[in-house]
Design brief:
Layout lengths: L7 H7 L1 H10 L2 E2 L4 E2 L13 E6 L1 H18 L3 E5 H4 L10 E7 L5 H12 L3 E6 L5 H5 L2 E4 L12 H20 L5 H12 L1 H9 L2 H12 L3 E6 L3 H16 L2 E6 L16 E5 L6 H13 L3 E7 H7 L5 E5 L7 H20 L17
Parallel strand pairs: 3-4, 3-5, 5-6, 6-7, 8-9, 8-10, 10-11, 11-12
Antiparallel strand pairs: 1-2
Helix pairs in contact: 2-7, 2-9, 3-7, 3-11, 7-14, 9-14, 10-14, 11-14
The protein binds fructose -6-phosphate.
The site of fructose -6-phosphate has 15 residues, from α3 and α11.
EC number: 2.6.1.16
Keywords: Aminotransferase, Cytoplasm, Glutamine amidotransferase, Repeat, Transferase
Enzyme class: transferase
């Protein structure tokens, strides 16, 4: 049931601290300060290359994971939406691990990609939320998310749980490759374990987000900008908004603005900038200022330090708790989801059953 929430989507957004904690429990050994996998004897040390394939929101989780696998494990990562992966001629060499990511475990294109990769001799890992699904059954390494049933058509809690599993997998791969010292492993465990509390901190901004939703609800077009792991979040933010509010939205890598999309900017286009303070902050803020100089209405999502440093000129800010960069994608997913939710409610659309969309896409 929806409990005392007005929509399943809102209930599921609010469940995230609990379900992420639940998911992390099967991947982190808190006492030993170690990361592990549910199938401990699966050998990751021989993996030479990773191919990540998924659709929609699950694809954006995979896009975040690409940054992590490369950064921590130094393993090259290939990333594709399943419907494209199937119809190009991907080169899959020995020692490759295919990772499929799917809430339902039944998405037709992703399942077909899994089967194709298997026929090419790849090992298969599946990050899935439905443990009885086809992908779960056909994988060599089943990596469950413990999000519980997701009813709202727009994916929310499955996404943050996928990120939690993928971060743990990246750490395990790094460890298997001898690229993670004991001290680094301890630190990663500590940061990941902080995610549930940080998600709670992010939820505390719900009312403030609701209060600013009208700025976005009045728009015809909205842009989302991010850099690094915030780039996939920008894409996810735009997807969530268009799915449930039917407002046209696009996500861009912040540095790509000047290569075209900046031509769209005027005072009718809200631009949501996702920029936690950290090594990429300055660069993103300078892209933000380019938008402001052209009259764009910037809504900045950052932490207190970031918002202070960015100065004047935004139409609104959303303050997130200050978190380690590893868990920032999980935490910043919350304001992005809440903004889409409140805009949709303000517009009066059917949040849980958006038009033309199905929860599980089992046809191509
Ligand atoms: C977006 C959304 C879809 C799904 C996509 C993949 O809110 O729900 O984009 O993420 O259809 O579905 P799964 O994860 O079940 O493979």
């Amino acid at each position: 049931s929806k409990g005392n929430h007005r929509h399943y989507m809102l209930k599921e957004i609010y469940e995230q601290p609990i379900v992420v904690a639940q998911t992390l429990r099967s991947y982190l050994q808190r006492m030993e300060e170690q990361v592990t996998l549910p199938i401990p004897d699966f050998d990751l040390s021989a993996i030479k290359r990773v191919t990540i394939v998924a659709c929609g929101t699950s694809f954006y989780a995979g896009m975040v994971a690409k940054y992590w696998f490369e950064q921590f494990a130094r393993v090259p990562v290939d990333l594709d939406v399943a419907s494209e992966f199937r119809y190009r001629a991907p080169v899959m060499e020995e020692g490759g691990l295919m990772i499929v990511i799917s809430q339902s475990g039944e998405t037709a294109d992703t399942l077909a990609a899994l089967r194709h990769a298997r026929s090419e001799g790849q090992k298969i890992a599946a990050v899935v939320n439905v443990p009885t699904s086809s992908m779960a059954r056909e994988a060599d390494l089943l990596l469950p998310t413990h999000a519980g049933p997701e009813i709202g058509v727009a994916s929310t809690k499955a996404f943050t749980c996928q990120l939690a599993v993928l971060a743990a997998l990246a750490a395990n791969l790094a460890k298997a490759k001898g690229r993670l010292s004991e001290a680094e492993e301890k630190a990663l465990v500590k940061h990941l374990a902080e995610a549930p509390a940080a998600l709670n901190g992010a939820l505390a901004y719900d009312e403030a987000i609701q209060a600013m939703a009208h700025v976005v609800a009045a728009a015809r077009d909205v842009l989302y900008l991010g850099r690094g792991t915030d780039y996939p979040l920008a894409l996810e933010g735009a997807l969530k908004l268009k799915e449930i509010s039917y407002i046209h939205a696009e996500g861009y890598a912040a540095g790509e603005m000047k290569h075209g999309p900046i031509a769209l900017i005027d005072d009718a286009v809200p631009v949501i900038v996702i920029a936690p303070s950290g090594p990429l902050f300055e660069k993103t803020v300078s892209n933000m200022q380019e938008v402001q100089a052209r009259g764009g209405k910037v809504i900045l999502i950052s932490d207190y330090d970031g918002i202070e440093a960015a100065g004047e000129g935004t139409v609104a800010t959303i303050t997130m708790p200050k978190v380690h960069p590893l868990i920032a994608p999980l935490v910043y997913a919350v304001p992005v989801q809440l903004l889409a939710y409140h805009v949709a409610v303000a517009k009066g659309t059917d949040v849980d059953q958006p038009r033309n969309l199905a929860k599980s896409v089992t046809v191509e």
